[in-house]
């Protein structure tokens, strides 16, 4: 079977650099699936989860926006504003961070920098929580359910 070479890069790290069968991402126009021999494409990615199908397992990651480029010869490059594997997220820590960001936003008292930073952090947290909720109950890479990995 044909494969896709997928590379997911964020400012912090290269999250994925592997041969896969399919990748599913959210774009400004909706969710798309990229399969081998997909037509060339460049589009903006919406914050949310991506599903990477390797043939053996599904890998779920969270992307905080960016761009996807589908090249000829089944090469796909995702330049992400930020990216994490779903199994790296800890729901309890995320909920605590949400409370801190909400408090900082309330206490910003006209400080536009603090207000904007709080808004950005809340958007990131919302994306994380939405992805955790969407994929709860799914067995992931390490053979554990999301709920088992959260604590």
Topology, element by element:
Blueprint: E1 4-9, E2 14-20, E3 22-27, E4 30-34, E5 41-45, E6 48-53, E7 58-63, E8 66-71, E9 75-80, E10 83-85, H1 91-106, H2 112-134, H3 146-149
Parallel strand pairs: 1-9
Antiparallel strand pairs: 1-2, 3-4, 3-6, 5-8, 6-7, 7-10, 8-9
Helix pairs in contact: 1-2
Structure summarized in a few sentences:
With 151 residues, the chain is of the alpha+beta class. Helices cover 28% and strands 37% of the residues. The protein has two domains: 82 residues, ATP Synthase, domain 1; 60 residues.
Could you characterize what this model shows?
- The protein is an alpha+beta fold and 151 residues long.
- It has two domains: 4-85, F0F1 ATP synthase delta/epsilon subunit, N-terminal (ATP Synthase, domain 1, Sandwich); 90-149.
- It has helices spanning 91-106, 112-134, 146-149, and strands at residues 4-9, 14-20, 22-27, 30-34, 41-45, 48-53, 58-63, 66-71, 75-80, 83-85.
- The strands form two sheets. The protein has a five-stranded mixed beta sheet with strand order 2-1-9-8-5, with no helix packed on it.
- A hairpin with a 3-residue loop joins strand 8 (66-71) and strand 9.
- Helix 1 (91-106) packs antiparallel against helix 2.
- It starts with a strand and ends with a helix.
- Residues 139-151 have low confidence and may be disordered.
